[in-house]
Amino acid sequence: MKQISLLNSTNPFPYEVIRSKRITLVVYVRKGQVEVRAPMRAPMYWIQSFLKEKTPWILEQLVSQKQKQAESLVIADGREFTFLGKSRVIAVVLAKQQKAVLKGDTLYLYGRDSSKATLEKVFNTWLLDQAREYMATQTIKTARLLGVDHKLKEVVFRKTKSKWGHCCEDGTIQYNWLTMMAPREVVDYLI
Predict the structure, then answer these.
(1) How far apart are CA 33 and CA 13, in angstroms?
(2) CA–CA distance, 98 with 40 (Å, rounded to integer)
(3) How many whole angstroms separate alpha carbon 12 and alpha carbon 25?
(4) pLDDT at 66 over 50
(5) For residue 52, how far is the Cα from the chain centroid?
(6) Phi and psi of 141, rounded to 5°?
(7) Which long-range contacts does 27-36 make (Cβ < 8 Å, 24+ apart)?
(8) What is the mean pLDDT of residues 9-27?
(9) Residue 14 pLDDT > 80
(10) CA gap 50, 39 in Å, rounded
(11) Does pLDDT of 25 surpass 90?
(12) What is the DSSP string of 4-45?
């Protein structure tokens, strides 16, 4: 059951209350939204008191998430991004074939249109290809150098929220391909 509370005099932020069969109160701040999970019969004064106690933390999270959103990568003509730690500029070119080509410090994104979805798809495909080429090759070289290449099953890539990479028990090494935007020394250290 959902119960929504808007901005009021006791709280400096809007929030949503979700009631369920639980015995404790918990607050989440995700994507700039405040959500309180509460027991079915928790009185509103209890929830209000809980939110008042957590207000400094909630405001800190809201500000932090807003900053992260402002700093997030925007794929558009003339925007800068980093690749292996070096600053690059995006140039959008309308074309029939979708592809990306890095020439010097400019990444040319070719696409049928300049929509956000098209540009992100072309950019992400290019960055994933770069990760497969560089990180997979370096991983195999490093495994051979360390004498553990017989344990390496495969190198895979996923876009994860909290990990740059990890090893699985079966010999699979997984990397977050967005790591390619970090400095080369960081990527090499991760490998």
Answers:
(1) 9
(2) 52
(3) 19
(4) yes
(5) 30
(6) -60, -45
(7) 27/51, 27/54, 27/58, 29/58, 29/61, 29/62, 29/65, 31/65, 32/62, 32/65, 32/66, 32/69, 34/58, 34/62
(8) 86
(9) yes
(10) 13
(11) yes
(12) EE--BTTBSS-EEEEEES-SS-EEEEETTEEEEEEETT--HH
Is the whole model's pTM more than 0.85, yes or no? no
Distance separating alpha carbons of residues 46 and 67, to the nearest angstrom: 31
> Which residues have CB under 8 Å from 187's CB, separation 6+?
84, 134, 135, 138, 179, 180
Span 147-173, average pLDDT: 91
* Cα 188 from chain centre: 20
CA neighbor of 113 nearest in space, from 127, 101, 96, 91: 96
Residue 135: which residues within 8 A CB-CB, separation 6 or more? 155, 157, 175, 177, 179, 180, 187, 191
Structure tokens at 106: 């400019």
- In the chain, the amino acid numbered 36 is V
